[in-house]
């Protein structure tokens, strides 16, 4: 089955700096890679996703890249703000696997003002 | 986007009792739904895949007799935690894929506390 690894587990940045979170996956059949932000006590919220037919996607301060050959995908947050502080999860899944989504272990991001 | 609801949002029960959690897809049909469990400061761990009209598929290490799943309609899956114990206290979240959009939608979660 799918296995997703995520690094780092904790990331602390100064406000305005960039933050990068990296993930790897094992199942080459996975074709959908969402990223979720979870604030304390709340459900995960989808912030951006990428499908296997593209290599990069950007939405304002957030971008995601995908390297299918290496089975790597990354989240990039630019100009970080204190409200970006949360736990971020990468995940892998998609139609090829019956939409079963497997999550990475999560990255706790702290943005210091 | 599509909406997935969960009920109840929070439940406190005594050890040894059973608790039922409902997951509904409100504006789309879901032949498959997924149940996750999240312990504090941990990731979402997939427990099982709920299949409409057939048996659920459980992940390795998840006791199917303890976590009963029923997916009786295209919009409703239920998870029953039988004979709950304090170690079952967790955040339970369901999700349903909207196949037309090829996107997963998560319910708001159910926080279970077993005393």
Number of strands of chain B: 11
Spatial separation of the terminal alpha carbons of chain A:
41 Å
Largest sheet of chain B: 7 strands, mixed
Largest sheet of chain A: 6 strands, mixed
Name the largest protein-protein interface in this structure: A-B, 22 and 21 residues
Regions with little confidence, pLDDT below 50 for 5+ residues of chain A? none
Shape assignment of chain B: globular
Average pLDDT number of chain A: 93
Average pLDDT of chain B works out at 93
Evaluate the radius of gyration of chain B: 13 Å
Number of helices of chain B: 0
Class by SSE composition of chain B: mainly beta
H/E element sequence of chain A: EEEEEEEEEEE
Please give the count of helices of chain A: 0
β-strand percent of chain B reads over 45%
Which geometry of chain A do the CA atoms define? globular
Describe this structure in words.
The complex is a heterodimer of chains A (113) and B (115). Chain A has no helices and eleven strands. Chain A is an all-beta fold and 113 residues long. In chain A, the strands form two sheets. In chain A, strands 2, 4, 5, 9, 10 and 11 form a six-stranded mixed β-sheet that branches. A five-stranded antiparallel β-sheet of chain A has the order 1-3-8-7-6, with no helix packed on it. Chain A starts with a strand and ends with a strand. Chain B is globular. In chain B, strands 2, 4, 5, 6, 9, 10 and 11 form a seven-stranded mixed β-sheet that branches. A four-stranded antiparallel β-sheet of chain B has the order 1-3-8-7, with no helix packed on it. Chain B has strands at 4-7, 10-13, 19-25, 32-38, 45-51, 57-58, 67-73, 76-81, 90-98, 103-106, 110-114. Chain B has no helices and eleven strands. The model of chain B has no long low-confidence stretch (mean pLDDT 93). In chain B, strand 5 and strand 6 (57-58) form a beta hairpin. Chain A binds chain B through residues 32, 34, 41-44, 46, 49, 51, 89, 93-95, 98-106, and chain B through 32, 34, 36, 42-46, 49, 93, 95, 97, 99, 102-104, 106-109, 111.
């Amino acid at each position: 089955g799918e296995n997703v690894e995520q690094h780092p587990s904790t990331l602390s940045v100064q406000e305005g700096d960039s933050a990068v979170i990296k993930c790897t996956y094992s199942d080459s059949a996975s074709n959908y890679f969402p990223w979720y932000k979870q604030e304390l006590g709340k459900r995960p919220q989808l912030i951006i996703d990428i499908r296997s037919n593209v290599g990069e996607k950007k939405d304002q301060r957030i971008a995601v890249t995908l390297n299918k050959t290496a089975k790597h995908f990354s989240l990039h947050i630019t100009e970080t703000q204190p409200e970006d502080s949360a736990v971020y999860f990468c995940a892998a899944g998609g139609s090829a696997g019956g939409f079963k989504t497997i999550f990475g272990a999560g990255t706790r991001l702290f943005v210091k003002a | 986007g599509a909406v997935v609801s969960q009920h109840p949002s929070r439940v406190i029960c005594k050890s040894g009792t059973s608790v039922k959690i409902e997951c509904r897809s409100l504006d789309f049909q879901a032949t498959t739904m997924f149940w996750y469990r999240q312990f504090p400061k941990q990731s979402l761990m997939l427990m099982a895949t709920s299949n409409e009209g057939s048996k659920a598929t459980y992940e390795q290490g998840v006791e199917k007799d303890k976590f009963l799943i029923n997916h009786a309609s295209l919009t409703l899956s239920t998870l029953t935690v039988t004979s709950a114990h304090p170690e079952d206290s967790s955040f339970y979240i369901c999700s349903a894929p909207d196949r037309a959009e090829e996107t997963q939608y998560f319910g708001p979660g159910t926080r279970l506390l077993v005393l």
